[in-house]
Design a protein that fits this description.
The chain is an alpha/beta fold. Helix content is 47%, strand content 13%. The protein has 8 helices and 4 strands. Helix 1 packs antiparallel against helix 2 and helix 6 runs parallel beside helix 8. It is an enzyme of class 2 (transferase).
């Protein structure tokens, strides 16, 4: 199956150069020609175009980048930055919320509690992850894990990437606004450091 191109409009010139480089390398491999000079020239042009493109983005283009489907999500960062991550589930009151992942891990030899909203890569996973929109049980799970971090005196690392709380009837029936408010209040009083990193929307 052909990989879908998720290029944004302002990235099209960059993608064209990358395709040109790819075609040149393919031709070189097939014909055994030395195209190193041309490859270097295109690579330099790609770097220059990248700098020019991403250094002068409009506010809307920045929003588009933050919502890009190929951006790394929370579990991608966890996999690459942390060791011994053990995902914990459930809020101990209703059920687990797959839109919010979290658990203890090690970062450069230090124990931390990692939390993050998780989106899906395809329709099935997006439905499972609720498109990264936590329900009240997700916020309560986050609070449970932050309190656990406080109990064990380890810092909290929050990877933020969400369009917002889930706005459904069920979420309102289970008091999503109250769950968010309690989290804000309790986070303000936590006796451990909390580092929030915006990795996408949020």
């Amino acid at each position: 199956m052909e990989k879908k191109d998720h290029s944004l409009d302002f990235e099209k010139p960059l993608r064209a150069l990358e395709k040109q480089l790819e075609d040149l390398l393919k031709t070189s491999k097939e014909s055994d020609l030395d195209v190193s000079k041309e490859v270097r020239a295109i690579e330099e042009k790609i770097e220059r175009t990248k700098r020019e493109t991403y250094s002068d983005l409009t506010p809307w283009q920045k929003v588009q980048l933050s919502r890009h489907p190929n951006r790394p999500y929370a579990l991608d960062y966890v996999e690459r930055l942390f060791e011994d991550f053990q995902e914990l589930h459930g809020d101990r009151a209703f059920r687990d919320d797959a839109a919010l992942v979290g658990g203890p891990a090690c970062f450069e030899g230090e124990s931390v509690m990692v939390l993050g909203q998780q989106k899906g890569r395809d329709t099935e996973e997006n439905l499972k992850r609720n498109f990264g929109c936590p329900n009240p049980e997700g916020y309560r799970k986050a609070l449970r894990l932050m309190k656990m971090a406080e109990k064990f005196a380890i810092p909290v690392v929050a990877l933020v990437d969400t369009p917002g709380a889930y706005p459904g009837v069920g979420a309102e029936e289970r008091h999503v606004a109250e769950a968010i408010a309690v989290n804000i209040r309790e986070m303000a009083g936590l006796r451990v450091p909390v580092v929030a990193i915006v990795i996408g929307e949020g």
